[in-house]
Specification:
The complex is a heterodimer of chains A (299) and B (286). Chain A has one domain: ABC transporter involved in vitamin B12 uptake, BtuC (Orthogonal Bundle), CATH 1.10.3470. Chain A is built from twelve helices and four strands. The relative contact order of chain A is 0.20. Chain B has 286 residues and is of the alpha/beta class. Chain B contains eleven helices and ten strands. Classes of the chains: A mainly alpha (299), B alpha/beta (286). The structure holds adenosine-5'-diphosphate (ADP) and magnesium ion. Magnesium ion (MG) binds next to helix 1 of chain B.
Amino acid sequence: MTFFLQNFFNGIMLGGLYALIAVGYSMVYGILRLINFAHGDVMMMGVYFAYYSAVVFSLNPILSFTVAVLGAAALGFLIDRVAYKPLRKAPRISALITAIGVSFFLENLAVVIFGAIPKSFLDVFKDKSILEKTITVADARIPLLTFLVIIVTFAMFSVLFFVVYKTKIGMAMRAIAADIPTTSLMGVNVDNVIGFTFALGSALAAAGGIMWAMRFPNVHPYMGFVPGLKAFIAAVFGGIGSISGAVLGGILLGMIEIFLAAYFPSVMGYRDAFAFIILITVLLVKPSGLLGKKAIEKV
Amino acid sequence: MTSPTLDLSRKPILILDQVTMQFGGLVAVDDFTAEIRQGELVGLIGPNGAGKTTVFNLITGIYHPTKGKIVFDGIDITPLKPHQITHLGIARTFQNIRLFSDMTVLENVLVAQHHKFTNPDADRILKINGKSAKRVANFWFWRSVLKVGYLKFEKEMVSKAKELIEKLGLSKFMHEKASALPYGDQRKLEIARALATDPKLLLLDEPAAGMNPKETEDLMRFVERIREEFDLTIFLIEHDMKVVMGICERIIVMDYGRIIAEGTPKEIQNNPKVIEAYLGREWEGV
Ligand SMILES: Nc1ncnc2c1ncn2[C@@H]1O[C@H](COP(=O)(O)OP(=O)(O)O)[C@@H](O)[C@H]1O
Ligand SMILES: [Mg+2]
């Protein structure tokens, strides 16, 4: 039971982080039918923003994370304006290739600005005792950090769902996902709403990345690749284009990874392969994913 | 007695000046010049593929004409984007219903009200029931409302939307998905959604398509009613000539992208060019 609980909390935490990043892929895909390959790199930039504002500008962790999340949101918005917006009417493949270009650009920009030598995210915390605190749940000792990450993650999801389902801009996002020209004829400035979507997705990814870095503190310019890829798989697993799908897919993927590694330690080395096995299985069996709608080609 | 065509006391609200739209080698709209006057109900008819829908797509900024100019309410709208044109007061419906089918009736209308957030044209903000316009001092007022009481504002928007839906007789479907509505009510919802943008000019693209004669009759009454109630100018595409004859004051006839006739329903009915254009084609209405 203790062992189970420990893994359960780890699974929720890892899955929640995948989900936070996956939502950005799914929202952008839902609206533009674009796989934003640069998404993981925006996450990486967000982690650097947090690192530098804490270590160099000595902001306290909470403040530096806020700055980083806002910085990533601005970056996401900017990327859309500069790289994707001019290609709205171009064939979809052009935007896709541009996304790969933006990804390389961000990685290399990070090498130039921040350097290729990995940094430890733990430097962010002056008081490292918080990292060692644990909470005991039915004999299982769960790190306090794990709880914090889970709480923050779910708080962010609540905000996300509120924005998407209860606010005007969220309504516009859903309308755009259904039909861009018609939405613009309703007087909605579609480009602004798309920009907002990028900002929102990037903010969530940065928050996910920062919490990822607390767990895996190795900060380097290519650190966005693995979580980005996993989150993408999670988005496809849950049904790309669906926000609830991305959340579900992320949490399930995290759980599956943790539990397989826990109960079958001999296959631990293949942990990353599980994600791809899931991806291939989903694509073969239910290409629209768990909660996705049947693929209707958008014209 | 003057015919509506010659009623020069009404000022023109929409002017299309030698508008041409070319798709590759195909000239879908060719040198189209017309005027719609304030408060008029004008019909646009013509056989399938004549270019009628393309004219609407040009007016609403979905396409930009390859030649010519479009002026609305004194403003050259030729280069504007669809949402900007909507802000100025043109709304439309579609030949093939294009509702947000996964969203509720209420949400469909709310999306259309969205632009009032950023529309600096203060007098027209929230003019849905006419009276509330007077309560709205200016755009800055709403800006401040936005800051101090977002939720209150949001509530107000919802109640405005509900009011409109009620007015159009769709309130029993308020929280149903748009796709769950009967066909005729989907057409009405499209009109409700268009009205939520607070238009001066309403463009209806074959609103009676797919309806039986009884439903068509009801719809035309409905169009006349909203025209009065919302003080609209209406430009209406129709396939069934009987429908247009009944309610339009003036009719423009298109064929192969060009205007071939223009006049009162009577004049159009007896115009040899019109008869010729439709002879032997899918034309049942005359
Ligand atoms: N986006 C487009 N690209 C190419 N051809 C088009 C496009 N839109 C309309 N057309 C062509 O323009 C002509 C007029 O179409 P349309 O305006 O829909 O006719 P109507 O509404 O009178 O039936 C048709 O031949 C149609 O195929
Ligand atoms: Mg048409």
